[in-house]
């Protein structure tokens, strides 16, 4: 009798362990499928950007086929094998392709920085310009346009001033927050105050500006990718190579900070240090983008929300998805603005809002019962 009880008990234990292993295996498989879907979506976004980028180069007053575009690209590196005519080569290489590259890089950077700021500030309305970076850059342009004063003279007068004042504005807010405690509320309030201050100073310069100076400030404030050229590519690429990996390394920390600063601290994460580190890197990246493209404010606000609706809230996948969606929206808006009412070119900053807001509202209404924040 005792032997039968032992055998039955052993059978129950083996059955329990077997069912437990099966449950663990099912959970592991579900998680792998969950991650696989995210990777497929991100890969699809990347492939769509590559496809649309190659297609958009062919659109314009001068008709250029896809085959001619690839010949022009390869002729730069293999001139003996690929021969191209002068005008299409100049248009594609010096006008259209730099705009596409600038749109991809600027949209990607603004999307990532918007995702970072919404996470560290715990505010769904945060964007790369919450800290007054846009208003600081605009004030730098106003100073250069009206007074002709800048850290760099010549053709880079506006660019140098925009970058300098954008970074000074960010560093001032970060320093103020570090003295009073780098909480999300302190950063937001300081950013709003600085934003209003520099906006008022910019309006004051516009009031005293001549027609030519006013036109320059207004056109820069609308955002435009035409100022980007291949001479700026290496600088922007270096900033991306430094800031993007360092921000991505903080993805797990940001996931933990969602549960609150005190809970994150109990798990060994200093939320204030992470917040300051991420804000400093994001400010550097945004200032570099803004000084070459002007004010394009919509991408950093909405791209992270679009990504959150599609990919979820895990920052390991939310970061690249936000950047890719930002790049996708920006290049689509730019090519539409260039070709909608030829020969007039609508500024990129205007088109991003005109195209992005309806699509964003469609996503909200379509999935209104699900919370994403």
Automatic annotation (TrEMBL):
Subcellular location: Cell membrane
Major site of localization recorded for this protein: membrane
MF terms (GO), sorted A to Z: transmembrane transporter activity
Protein origin, superkingdom: Archaea
Annotated function: Required for corrinoid utilization. Probably part of the ABC transporter complex BtuCDF involved in cobalamin (vitamin B12) import. Probably involved in the translocation of the substrate across the membrane.
Assembly and interaction partners: The complex is composed of two ATP-binding proteins (BtuD), two transmembrane proteins (BtuC) and a solute-binding protein (BtuF).
PANTHER family: ABC TRANSPORTER PERMEASE PROTEIN MJ0876-RELATED (PTHR30472:SF25), FERRIC ENTEROBACTIN TRANSPORT SYSTEM PERMEASE PROTEIN (PTHR30472)
Protein name (record): Cobalamin import system permease protein BtuC
Gene3D superfamilies noted in UniProt: ABC transporter involved in vitamin B12 uptake, BtuC
Family in the record: Belongs to the binding-protein-dependent transport system permease family. FecCD subfamily.
A GO CC annotation given for this chain: plasma membrane
Gene Ontology biological-process entries: siderophore-iron import into cell
A Pfam family annotated for this UniProt entry: FecCD
Positions of region (Disordered): 1-24
Keyword Protein transport: no
Topology versus the membrane: Multi-pass membrane protein
TM regions (residue ranges): 39-59, 97-117, 129-152, 158-179, 186-208, 228-248, 277-303, 315-333, 345-365
Keywords: Cell membrane, Membrane, Transmembrane, Transmembrane helix, Transport
């Amino acid at each position: 009798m005792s032997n039968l009880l032992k055998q039955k008990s052993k059978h129950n234990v083996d059955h329990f362990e077997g069912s437990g292993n099966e449950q663990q295996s099912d959970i592991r498989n579900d998680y792998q499928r969950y991650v696989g879907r995210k990777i497929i979506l991100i890969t699809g976004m990347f492939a769509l950007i590559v496809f649309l980028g190659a297609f958009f180069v062919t659109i314009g007053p001068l008709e250029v086929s896809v085959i001619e575009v690839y010949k022009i690209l390869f002729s730069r590196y293999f001139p003996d094998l690929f021969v191209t005519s002068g005008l299409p080569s100049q248009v594609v290489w010096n006008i259209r392709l730099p705009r596409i590259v600038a749109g991809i890089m600027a949209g990607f950077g603004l999307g990532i920085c918007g995702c970072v700021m919404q996470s560290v500030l715990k505010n769904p309305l945060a964007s790369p310009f919450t800290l007054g970076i846009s208003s600081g850059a605009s004030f730098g342009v106003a100073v250069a346009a009206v007074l002709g004063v800048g850290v760099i003279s010549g053709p880079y007068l506006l660019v140098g001033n925009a970058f300098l004042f954008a970074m000074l504005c960010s560093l001032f807010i970060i320093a103020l927050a570090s003295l009073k405690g780098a909480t999300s509320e302190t950063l937001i309030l300081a950013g709003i105050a600085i934003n209003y201050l520099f906006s008022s100073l910019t309006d004051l310069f516009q009031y005293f500006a001549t027609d030519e100076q006013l036109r320059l400030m207004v056109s820069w404030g609308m955002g435009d990718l035409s100022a980007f050229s291949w001479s700026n590519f290496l600088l922007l690429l270096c900033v991306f190579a430094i800031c993007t990996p360092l921000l991505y390394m903080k993805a797990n920390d940001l996931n933990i900070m969602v549960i609150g600063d005190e809970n994150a601290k109990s798990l060994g994460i200093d939320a204030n240090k992470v917040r300051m580190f991420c804000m400093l890197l994001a400010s550097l990246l945004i200032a570099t983008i803004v000084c070459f493209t002007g004010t394009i404010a919509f991408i950093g606000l909405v791209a992270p929300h679009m990504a959150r609706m599609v990919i979820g809230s895990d920052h390991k996948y939310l970061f690249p998805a936000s950047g890719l969606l930002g790049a996708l929206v920006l290049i689509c808006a730019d090519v539409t603005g260039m070709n909608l009412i030829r020969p007039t070119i609508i500024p990129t900053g205007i088109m991003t809002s005109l195209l992005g807001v309806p699509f964003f509202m469609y996503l909200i209404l379509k999935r209104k019962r699900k919370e994403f924040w």
